[in-house]
């Protein structure tokens, strides 16, 4: 299932929501999710195998090669745990380095950021899973295995599972690890994820799940991709009060994603964020309209930032320079992950950190 082109692009965009920054009241929480740039014990990834999700056998093989390359690259900096059914492990092992450990947890697709465990620390500093229940992006894709991944890994690693009371995906919310979250309403305040919950109720549960105090909302885009416009393909925190955002140089205001991106930028600016803009690539190897070409969808691991390059020499170089400034002292490794862009995601979507 293609994540970006899930629904017809001809669907009309819903009426714009009032643009407001919500300052949640400070709330105590026994859970705390560290920022991604803090030290990791390792990285968790998922091995894609489902022919129902990826019916083209040749493309699925390319997708597996891409996931293996990401895992092998990260394993140069930290341990990687690849989740896979025992029947799928022999084929997976052939593509991966010895720095990647295979774990017997069945998977269908590769989106660990969404289906995998959100690992937090409790008041005693112990690892727990702050559980946001994955339901296939609002029951849009099969998730018989993937919907069980977070709980299965929690059990395997001996971590308590603490239910957030939310259905959704951690890829749909960004946290700075210093008390602030940002998200698109379209991924959370929606019937196919959290029916019957108000925006305020969703916010309160997200704040508690991450151990945060306040939240910045932007409207996003409903119903035009399978994720309902996850924030992590547009904007990322690089530190307290600092945001990196990927914007088109020449936005097409007939494109709902361009309109929403500009809207999100303006909301973050009004909220006082220090914003770094990386332009979207103009020249790409993949030309299709629904290809996700996001420099913001990078992953921070121990000593490195793993990012994408799309074949535009100018913007690829600008992205690396911006990431070097945002993450001084880390190596910036740029990979060709076009296969992920073709199915609507990127490197961040395919990874989930296990905090140290």
Walk me through what this model shows:
The protein has 356 residues and is an alpha/beta fold. It has helices at 57-74, 89-95, 112-115, 136-139, 149-157, 199-210, 256-270, 313-326, 338-342, and strands spanning 40-46, 79-84, 100-104, 119-121, 127-133, 161-167, 173-175, 180-184, 214-218, 235-239, 242-247, 274-279, 299-301, 304-308, 331-335, 352-355. The protein is 25% helix and 23% strand. Residues 4-29 have low confidence and may be disordered.
Task: Give a quick precis of the structure.
By secondary structure, this protein is an alpha/beta fold. It has helices spanning 57-74, 89-95, 112-115, 136-139, 149-157, 199-210, 256-270, 313-326, 338-342; strands at 40-46, 79-84, 100-104, 119-121, 127-133, 161-167, 173-175, 180-184, 214-218, 235-239, 242-247, 274-279, 299-301, 304-308, 331-335, 352-355.
